[in-house]
Design a protein that fits this description.
Elements (H helix, E strand, L loop, with lengths): L1 H8 L17 H20 L1 H12 L4 H13 L3 H14 L11 H14 L3 H12 L9 H17 L3 H11 L8 H4 L5 H14 L2 H14 L4 H13 L3 H14 L5 H18 L4 H14 L5 H15 L2 H14 L2 H19 L4 H11 L2 H17 L3 H12 L8 H14 L2 H17 L22 H12 L26 H16 L33 H7 L10 H4 L1 H10 L1
Helix pairs in contact: 3-4, 4-5, 5-6, 6-7, 6-8, 7-8, 8-9, 9-11, 11-12, 13-14, 13-15, 14-15, 15-16, 16-17, 17-18, 18-19, 19-20, 20-21, 21-22, 22-23, 23-24
Length: 584
């Protein structure tokens, strides 16, 4: 305890020369010394953060964060003057090119805030900012740091409600006459200062001064697409429509495709133009749309094509509108072609009727990839079915079948299956099954993962092949051959009767016909075993056989009511004489 007391009292305490016998006499003085030592210890403890901060600043005087922290420590202690002095010292100690842990402009902004809000000395705050902005007292490495100081100077005047001074300061900041340093020369391209000037000009200046500010920004090419939109909107609100369109023209010239802002500028340009003129300036509107679409990349073009087509439908001709949609189908990226063709078909049916969609469907099938083309085939077949063109619908389905893998696109085959059940017969159903097997064989070498094949999706039960055949047979009042395979080979174009199922039966019928021809007069003509018609084309692999021609005497013998008469020799002339000499 005595040693601790000696440390607190210091050397003046005289711990080694203290006489124990004099404790009573010096009790009052010792108590005062202890209180003084405690006060010194508390003061030292309270100043510990400042002392540690001083150590860090001695290690690196360019640490901006530690200077800000030092000023905040003084403010916590209620010493605003010391905080301002520390920040003034920091401006002399910190080099902008060596600064770490913060931007040098933070020192200036913090000093101005302390002077204005803590010391209530607006004049001093204005003087500090003026020294930095106009006097270039501190050399910044980055123009953006100096721009923040100029913005703080303008905002100070706005808080004091000195509107004219604030507007003049904003104009001076972007004038390019703020000094010869690199940071001062870069102020004229600072978006922070230009945004501040535009806001002040629109709210405090006149229309002409605001137009001059926007025009100068466009000339310096520091304006952004947002500035162009604000400029056009500012002129439009004040009824300067043509000047607003001129601003859009300058904007699309400054930001052409494929710039990200070009799409936004063209959309607002066309929307404002259509809102202003509607259908009164059709040639000029078409010229704008054509110029936009000629420069627009395919990825951004669908929206403009839709807007153009809607305009032609409302104010132009249906033929022009359909030509616009046709151009859209050819220009959009492959991922958008299916939707574009569907829209084109819908508009064509709306304006020209259903039959006009046929060439569009055909061009869509040839232009699309396999999956979308198969879906287009289904829609095409559905349209033909609605027109009672069953054969055309079946042809479309047969063509689209080669694009639809049964494993990956079961909906297509289910639709064809339902179509044949509703509108086909046994032969067409067999043809559908044959095509399906051929397509399965063609896609047998193609592999898909489970996600591509839609694994886990709901399955819709359809009629089996046998049930479908029975339904068709019941509808047509005919019997289904149970022992006959569903597809016994290639399907023929004509229907074969049950009696001609084998080649032996055909030969037997031909023999009976020859016997009937060679029979006597009294024999009754034989018509065959039934009324079935013989079609030699339906016999697979059978060679045509020539039937023997009966002699004329036999033909005459079997024909009743006809008498024979000799032909005069004069009819034959010299031929009769020559034949007589030959017989002799």
């Amino acid at each position: 305890d005595d040693d601790d007391l000696d440390i607190l009292l210091g050397d003046g305490g005289g711990g080694g020369s203290r006489d124990p016998s004099s404790n009573g006499e010096t009790a009052l003085g010792a108590s005062a010394d202890v209180e003084l030592a405690i006060s010194r210890a508390e003061h030292l403890t309270s100043r510990r953060p400042l002392l540690l901060n001083r150590v860090l600043l001695r290690q690196n005087p360019h640490n901006v964060g530690e200077w800000i922290r030092r000023s905040q420590l003084y403010l916590d202690l209620g010493e605003a003057d010391m905080a301002a002095s520390a920040l003034e010292e920091s401006l002399k100690a910190v080099s902008a090119r060596k600064s770490v842990n913060g931007s040098p402009c933070t020192l200036v902004l913090t000093l101005a805030d302390v002077l204005e809000n803590k010391r209530r000395d607006v004049v001093a705050a204005r003087a500090v900012l003026e020294r930095i902005c106009a006097g270039n007292e501190y050399e910044f490495a980055d123009a953006e740091d100096l721009a923040q100081c100029h913005a703080a100077r303008v905002e100070l005047e706005l808080r004091r409600e000195d509107w004219d001074a604030a507007l003049n300061l904003a104009r001076r900041a972007v004038s390019g006459k703020n000094g010869a340093s690199k940071a001062a020369r870069g102020l004229s391209r600072s978006l922070r200062l230009w945004n501040l000037l535009f806001d002040l000009e629109e709210s405090l200046g006149t229309v002409q001064t605001a137009k001059d500010a926007y025009d100068r920004a466009l000339e310096l090419k520091v304006a952004t697409p947002s500035h162009v939109l604000n400029y056009a909107s500012f002129l439009k609100d004040r009824k300067y429509f043509e000047e607003s369109f001129a601003a859009y023209e300058r904007g699309v010239g400054l930001f052409p495709f494929p710039h990200a802002g070009a799409t936004l500028l063209w959309k607002n340009y066309l929307a404002d133009f259509l809102e202003r003129y509607g259908g009164s300036k059709t040639p000029r509107t078409r010229e704008l749309f054509d110029r936009c679409l000629s420069e627009c990349p395919p990825e951004e073009s669908p929206e403009f094509y839709l807007l153009y087509g809607d305009y032609e439908e409302s104010h132009g001709l249906a033929k022009r509108a359909l030509s616009v949609y046709e151009r859209m189908c050819a220009s959009v990226p492959p991922s958008e072609k299916y939707a574009a063709y569907r829209l084109y078909v819908t508009k064509a049916i709306q304006h020209l009727g259903i039959p006009s969609a046929r060439p569009i469907y055909e061009s869509a099938i040839s232009a699309l990839e396999d999956g979308p083309a198969a879906r287009i085939c289904l829609e095409y077949a559905k349209m033909e079915t609605g027109l009672r063109e069953t054969d055309r619908a079946r042809t479309v389905l047969a063509y689209g079948a080669q694009l639809a893998d049964p494993r990956r696109d079961p909906d297509y085959w289910r639709a064809w299956h339902d179509f044949e059940v509703s509108h086909g017969n046994e032969e067409t159903f067999r043809e559908m099954l044959r095509v399906k097997r051929a397509v399965q064989a063609a896609f047998s070498t193609v592999n898909y993962n489970a996600a591509e094949m839609g694994a886990g999706g709901p399955r819709v039960e359809t009629l089996t092949e046998e049930a479908a055949m029975e339904m068709i047979a019941e509808r047509e009042d005919m019997a289904v051959e149970k022992d006959r395979p569903v597809v016994g080979g290639f399907v023929k174009g004509k229907k074969r009767t049950a009696g001609m199922a084998d080649l032996g039966e055909v030969e037997r019928r031909a023999a009976r016909l020859r016997e009937a021809t060679a029979g006597d007069e009294d024999a009754a003509p034989v018509s065959g075993a039934g009324d079935d018609e013989i079609d030699i084309d339906d016999i697979d692999g059978e060679e045509e056989e020539e039937e023997p021609v009966p002699p004329p005497s036999l033909v005459a013998k079997n024909v009743r009511g006809v008498s024979e008469k000799a032909i005069p020799a004069a009819v034959f002339g010299g031929l009769a004489a020559a034949s007589g000499d030959g017989e002799t």
